[in-house]
Amino acid sequence: MDWNFRTAEELATALRAGDVTSVELTDEAIAAIERDDEAINAICVPDFDRARAAARDADQARARGEDRPLLGIPVTVKESYNIAGLPTTWAMPQQRDYMPAEDAVQVSRLRAAGAVMLGKTNVPLGLQDVQSFNEIYGTTNNPWDHGRTAGGSSGGSAAALASGFGALSIGSDIAGSLRTPAHFCGVYAHKPTLGLAASRGMVPPPGPALPAEADLAVAGPMARSARDLTLLLDVMAGPDPLTLGVAYDLRLPPARHERLGDFRVLVLEQHPLIPSGADVRAGVNRVADALVDGGARVERHSPLLPDLTEAAMLYTQLLFSSQVARFPVEAYEQLRTRAAGLSADDQSLDAERLRAMVFSHRDWIEANNRRELHRHGWRQFFAAFDAVVCPITPTPAFPHDHDPDLRARRIDIDGVEYPYFDQLVWAGLATMPGLPATAVPTGRSAEGLPVGVQLIGPMYEDRTPLRLAELLEEKIGGFEAPK
């Protein structure tokens, strides 16, 4: 029997029933990687010997009567997470030999849950691209069309799941890095509420694995079903035991509703700063139609929605001001010179990105204060609604574009070109205020490529968009293996 495309939940049931062993699952997954990954290049650091040993241990543990959430289930891990004994490079050539001494906290949680780690998945240089390619490990191709990107920065994880290489994966997200690859590859992902899942050990090498949480960035689960996202989030969620975990225990509230007809949803298909392509709009409307058909209350407009343009500008400021914090002094001074030459009338996202790169501390504090106002606006919004349905990016997966000048890259939306990084505005809608967002497949584009949407929910109520994702999977279907 082919187990490689089964959900983690199905594998756990089969393992408990004795229908299959972890060794069998692991050998089958490794065989698929060795057979198919040359064309995809999702698994950049295989760890097959230790995976087989872990599978044997899992089978022995189960024979002793043990049962853990992921016991014996093959998974993968984004390259940027520290795994003792494997390199962590963040795709930076100067760090190709860096070997961390201990596991990231999320890797430790996978081990404690009994997961079998097959290896690490590919990323872009410094995790700073919407694609996954680099000088060390090469390019990850989209399993649906090898001439297109699998997304970034968790592109290797999404491509691995779509290809049947493991049932689950862990990634990270600051600019859609979980959601965009899921959208491009036709799988599921969940960007948790900011701070919900500890990220110690997900740090650029050779930096120490300190228990510090970066602004905007989150660790999160990826899977081939919505229920599997919840399974993995329950393993990942919780404060770092070295800091907040000393005093606090996690208790996520239940989903607001169990029936589709009880949900109150705002549907957005267009952003004021960049259009959504026809394929993406069609995906949004497939979900909207399913919600209406299921009896949900669906609205297209609300005065409670925080201003999308200001939200995008704030997100741009907070994101790009942090991205240059470790730039060499010479490069930073060049940015200051360029920013000083901008016209005050230039209010484009390109100009805002440049200004943000040379923010003063005073500038950042002001942006952060405005973020708190947006968070308050979202609290008021979610008193009247349960979720927002909207695009993840304006297009399905686009052709590989490795132009080293990122400012010269363009994104083609129905035949019209836009600045490459403008596509991040949809990712920023949930990221800037720290809201949870679940990426779900909605079907295929006119060219047969996967199309997804995100379900944004209230802060710390991650189970609400996750439950909505489960109900939509039942209503419109979910993951399909690449044709």
Automatic annotation (TrEMBL):
NCBIfam families: PRK06170.1. It comes from Streptomyces yokosukanensis. Keywords: Hydrolase. This is Amidase. Gene3D superfamilies: Amidase signature (AS) domain. Transmembrane segments: none annotated. SUPFAM superfamilies: Amidase signature (AS) enzymes. GO terms for cellular component: endomembrane system. It is an enzyme of class 3 (hydrolase). Its EC number is 3.5.1.4. InterPro entries: Amidase_CS, Amidase_dom, AS_sf, FAAH2. One of its GO terms (molecular function) is amidase activity. Residues 24-464 form the Amidase domain. The keyword Amino-acid biosynthesis does not apply.
